[in-house]
Amino acid sequence: MSQPAARDPDLTRARILEAALDLFVEQGPAAVTMREIAAASGVTKSLIHHHFGSKEALWSAVKEDGFLRYAQGQRADLEAASAPGSELLENSVLRYFRFLQQHPGVVRMFAWAHLEKDDSCGEADAALVGLGAQRIREAQQAGVLRDDINPTHVVTIFVNACTYWFEARAHHAQWPGIGSDEEFLEDFLKVFMAGLAPRP
Amino acid sequence: MSQPAARDPDLTRARILEAALDLFVEQGPAAVTMREIAAASGVTKSLIHHHFGSKEALWSAVKEDGFLRYAQGQRADLEAASAPGSELLENSVLRYFRFLQQHPGVVRMFAWAHLEKDDSCGEADAALVGLGAQRIREAQQAGVLRDDINPTHVVTIFVNACTYWFEARAHHAQWPGIGSDEEFLEDFLKVFMAGLAPRP
DNA sequence: CCGGCAATTGACCGGTCGACCAGTTAATTA
DNA sequence: TAATTAACTGGTCGACCGGTCAATTGCCGG
């Protein structure tokens, strides 16, 4: 006979967070009810309140957890793409694009956070962007990239282009002549890298 | 003494649409109540149902109206920036950026639509993007822009970079070394235009 | 092995939501 | 001007929301 699962508050919290993440990211925090989260995570509504206090606190915990995992993944990616110079930049764009491609929920989570003017997401990746900008500055000083562009803006440009590509995918899919993920990435990289080449 | 306002269903509809637009764009469709919209537009809740049927239908009407006005404004802008060649492209980016700068609600309305997977926004500007892409194609054939890039992707790149700049403004504001609207626009234009210059 | 505490449950509460409806008023038309 | 239609109002309903609470269960240190 199936025993009732042994008590494991950490696992319970994790299960609630996981179910809540899925629902929140998919439907938005306002449209999800505590009852849905309870049903999806296999616990009682009261238990969610016991562990997280309120719906808003749960949503905050979900975002904090999500942003943390995002930042950790990106940091690992940035350190893995360690080849210096312009190859590093091209690799970074490629890795960032692939990351969003494989984690569509991340784009949506950021979008929800932006719409509700939650700037806590900035804390998650500010240090990461600073690190990336530093690498670009080094490449500029080495003469590999043109040096009349703010390094942080270099990061911002490719982050914006890639992120919004996935956020507005269904929208832009209706534009005449639009290509696939791969074709867009290829074209963007051409323009981006050529635009950053040292000036003659 | 103040007469009760003469009946004017068109004006009433317009007032409801305007109030609903503001509230929906600011808080998102799920967070806004019919009672709020009624209070903000100075009519009864029942009257909104009379004119629009349901909350969802009202939100659809708001989006449709918003997208239409957006597309009309953009079309006017595109036709105004009629100088051919690479100047046209630079002007288009500039005008698009300024448009979003002056209409922050548009960015948010598109973001809400994207998050709820409403692809009706694509119908609004598909023709417009097609027109822009055609101009770029002509510039490519004239040798003013490099011709190994999908023209639609050229549009997409600058639309993404500009739109997400405003959508994630509060987020990116926390990034170290980030600049102002003007500084970002300048840097983006440098990279973008240089990246699209004909190859040697 | 027992006493305390956290994990967990189900019933329940006040409040608010979107929608509906019967009734009233003003414009339109025949 | 009588009749018809559409604009508009106030009141109300059932559903469902987030949150609370007393009671129960299982773990774990003394």
Write a structural description.
The structure is a homodimer of 200-residue chains. The longest helix of chain A has 26 residues, at 55-80. Chain A is 74% helix and 0% strand. Chain A starts with 8 loop residues before the first helix and ends with a helix. In chain A, helix 1 crosses helix 2 (34-41), helix 1 packs across helix 6 and helix 6 crosses helix 8. Chain A is built from 10 helices and no strands. By secondary structure, chain A is mostly helical. Chains A and B meet through helix 6, helix 7, helix 8, helix 9 and helix 10 of A and helix 6, helix 7, helix 8, helix 9 and helix 10 of B.
Poorly predicted runs of 5 or more residues of chain A:
none
Order of helices and strands of chain A: HHHHHHHHHH
The rough form of chain A would be described as: elongated
Give the helix proportion of chain A (percent range): over 70%
The average pLDDT value of chain A, as a whole number, equals 94
Using only CA atoms, what is the Rg of chain A?
20 Å
- Helix-strand makeup class of chain A: mainly alpha
Total helical elements of chain A? 10
Oligomer: homodimer
- Straight-line distance between termini of chain A: 77 Å
Overall number of strands of chain A: 0
> How large is the share of residues in beta strands of chain A?
under 5%
